[in-house]
Amino acid sequence: MPPTLPPSSTVLPPLICGTATFNDQYNPDPYALPTTAIVHEALSLGVRAFDTSPYYGPAEDLLGAALDTPFVRQNFPRSDYFLLTKIGRISGDEFDYSASWVRHSIQRSLERLHTNYLDVVYCHDVEFVSPLEVLTAVKELRRIRDESGVIKYIGISGYPVTTLCDLPELIKEDTGEPLDVVMSYANFTLQNTMLASVALPRLKAAGVKVVPNASVLGMGLLRRKGVPIGGKGDFHPSPKELRTAIQAASDWSDKQDINDNRMEKVAIRWALENWMHEGADVGSRGDPASGIPWRRENIEEYGGNMLGVSVMGVSSVEELRETMRVWRSILDGLADGEQTAIDSGRGTDERAWSLNRQKEVQTLATGIRNVLGTWVDYAWPSPPPGFANQRSAPGVPAPLPTPAASPDPVPKQFSNKGSTDMRRLPPL
């Protein structure tokens, strides 16, 4: 990392708005979502970071369009928010980590997001390619960072926790420089907590500064109505037996005499609240979005400890508002949370409510995990058995040759002798 950049753990916000939902995997028609309203409301509520990817269908374009509006330009300078995107994953079965594709992907993301720099760039779903390919991509990203400054921080993302630990160790050993960020998804949830139990010690030893926890519902698995079915049908890799166990746990939770006992509500709060503490050593001191109006904040104002970083995706303004309500309630329950509640206008009773809700959620979470039984900490295989990268020729495809210009037509000469036979004239 260039010496002029502060560590990522001092600047990244602990709550990041994810845009994987701006995609037809999670929604039948992402263009029908109120994406501009979601982004504008997120900024208005204090969210200061957005995570996206070229793999998420139109997500980069939709996010960029929402940010390239008078409302954002007039109220939120680019330096006030963070943009995180990815390279390498092109489609479900196509990956390209070559240096030329990295350069192409970065330039395309800059254009789509209407920005002249990217705060974080991840190598996307690193388990699908070889370690050498990841190393090649990381070195090219660092070259771009050092020579042009259009990238600030560099990391990797993926699912298997062993891969997410092996690669940072390899990269640090080979280059002498640790990764800035490693994002894991679906590995710190009610169903699977291996990000904390297995990965954290190794990631810290590898010098990784920030470890965001994404997909706290396990890509929609931990919901009463089951996994989301978008425009691409049922994409979720979980086995039928796990889904059956999740449904049983959801049914159990519904029967408990506790308010807001729906499993997804329990799962969201449990993951956000517990990762805030469990992930603190690889967390951040950035703006926590506590709701104190029109003031840049710092974690130092909330007890002085870093907070574990979470990524939350939503599909509506209502879901966003509910997420922020839960997030701020969790902040109210921190060591200095009562003052936070007062400064934000929520009032002193909010801290007491937050602490009580914390106990309720823990009770429900314990019961849900008991019902899941042997499915706790199960991880589905990624990549799936038999996977083969369909990218036949890595790199940016050469443009098609421009056809040579057609020669100017030469008028045909006709004899003036005798009469002209109209049947022999060339057609117009």
Describe the 3D structure.
Mean pLDDT is 91; it is low at 410-428. The protein has 12 helices and 10 strands. Helix 6 (161-175) packs parallel to helix 7 and helix 9 crosses helix 12. The chain has 428 residues and is of the alpha/beta class.
Roughly how many Å is the radius of gyration? 26 Å
Mean pLDDT: 91
Low-confidence regions: 410-428
- Quantity of strands, as a count: 10
Strand content: 5-15%
- Output the number of helix runs: 12
* Helicity, as a percent range: 25-40%
Major β-sheet strand ordering: 1-2-3-6-7-8-9-10
Helix/sheet category: alpha/beta
End-to-end Cα distance, whole Å, is 68 Å
Order of helices and strands: EHEHHEEEHEHEHEHEHHEHHH
Features:
disordered C terminus, 428 residues, alpha/beta, single chain, 10 strands, 8-stranded parallel barrel, 10% strand, two-stranded antiparallel ribbon
List the helices and strands and how they pair.
Layout: E1 15-18, H1 35-44, E2 49-51, H2 59-67, H3 70-75, E3 82-87, E4 89-91, E5 94-95, H4 99-112, E6 118-123, H5 131-148, E7 151-158, H6 161-175, E8 181-185, H7 194-205, E9 213-214, H8 240-254, H9 263-278, E10 310-313, H10 317-332, H11 337-344, H12 349-372
Helix pairs in contact: 1-2, 5-6, 6-7, 8-12, 9-10, 9-12, 10-11
Brief sketch in words of this structure:
The chain is an alpha/beta fold and 428 residues long.
